[in-house]
Amino acid sequence: MVKVKSAAINPVDYKLPRFVIGPVFGLDFSGIVEEIGDNVTNFKVGDAVYGHAHGSLAEKAVSSANKIAKKTDDLTFSEAAALPVAYVTALQGLRLGKVTEGSSVLIIGASGGCGIAAIQLAKAMGAKRIIAICSGKNSQLVKETGATEVVDYTKESELQSFFATNKESIQCVYDAATGSGHGEKYTNASMSLLLKDVGEYVQLNGSAKVWTKGVVLKNLPKHQHLILTDMNTADLEEVSLLLKKINAKPLMNIMPFTEEGLKEGF
Ligand SMILES: NC(=O)c1ccc[n+]([C@@H]2O[C@H](COP(=O)([O-])OP(=O)(O)OC[C@H]3O[C@@H](n4cnc5c(N)ncnc54)[C@H](OP(=O)(O)O)[C@@H]3O)[C@@H](O)[C@H]2O)c1
């Protein structure tokens, strides 16, 4: 059990039905360990930790030892609480996309939580070309975070021209926009951008059909992946190391833990 210091919210907190994620909102948190289970050997009372709990928007929360990591001193409690869902999803997505030193990566939905995380982690992994698709108003933000090129999806001709002139040139398309609820659809166009035989398309969301094929039947076409975040200690540690490598911090909007603060957050 932990005393929660900071908690973060993500789209999943208001998208998933309550019977799946429980009666208390919030999955991401940072805090101090107050009690440990009999079999826990890697944490002790008093440790500063961050990770995943069902119901983190509370004064205390219960987590599993394999879904948390020790917070390092370079991160504040708020920064650490901002990492789990967004950054572990991005890390696992870029890994599926086989991003390495020198890779070209397209990040769609680049100005959101999982998008910014992917830009920063792709940069830390040594990606050379990091293209961000977002609305023009967020162009400066994604550039400051590490994007080397920006495409404004609200300008239809700019978007079409990008897809027409970048065929078979990208190692990883990381798509945080498709299926987010407002008719976003990038899958078909993205597949044509992938480097022949080796490029990978990773989507964070999709239609019910894509979820069934991707998660239940596991038979999406070759080079197409749908991610379901697997929270674990090693990846929580890795995201904080990668951020440290490039001296980056998560972007945050901090609100007080009050009724007004929660309303503003959601
Ligand atoms: N499968 C999993 O395990 C998993 C894990 C985490 C998240 N997710 C999902 O991943 C998605 C992204 O999460 P998030 O936390 O990054 O959400 P978010 O913070 O709400 O960001 C969404 C972003 O999408 C952009 N966007 C909206 N319409 C777009 C379009 N037509 N083209 C390109 N970009 C568009 C917006 O950019 P602008 O403001 O610039 O317009 C916004 O910044 C959500 O659907 C979430 O549920 C899935």
Automatic annotation (TrEMBL):
<dbReference type="InterPro" id="IPR011032">
    <property type="entry name" value="GroES-like_sf"/>
</dbReference>
<dbReference type="InterPro" id="IPR013154">
    <property type="entry name" value="ADH-like_N"/>
</dbReference>
<dbReference type="InterPro" id="IPR036291">
    <property type="entry name" value="NAD(P)-bd_dom_sf"/>
</dbReference>
<protein>
    <recommendedName>
        <fullName>Enoyl reductase (ER) domain-containing protein</fullName>
    </recommendedName>
</protein>
<dbReference type="InterPro" id="IPR013149">
    <property type="entry name" value="ADH-like_C"/>
</dbReference>
<feature type="domain" description="Enoyl reductase (ER)">
    <location>
        <begin position="1"/>
        <end position="262"/>
    </location>
</feature>
<dbReference type="Pfam" id="PF08240">
    <property type="entry name" value="ADH_N"/>
</dbReference>
<dbReference type="InterPro" id="IPR050700">
    <property type="entry name" value="YIM1/Zinc_Alcohol_DH_Fams"/>
</dbReference>
<dbReference type="Pfam" id="PF00107">
    <property type="entry name" value="ADH_zinc_N"/>
</dbReference>
<dbReference type="InterPro" id="IPR020843">
    <property type="entry name" value="ER"/>
</dbReference>
<dbReference type="GO" id="GO:0016491">
    <property type="term" value="F:oxidoreductase activity"/>
</dbReference>
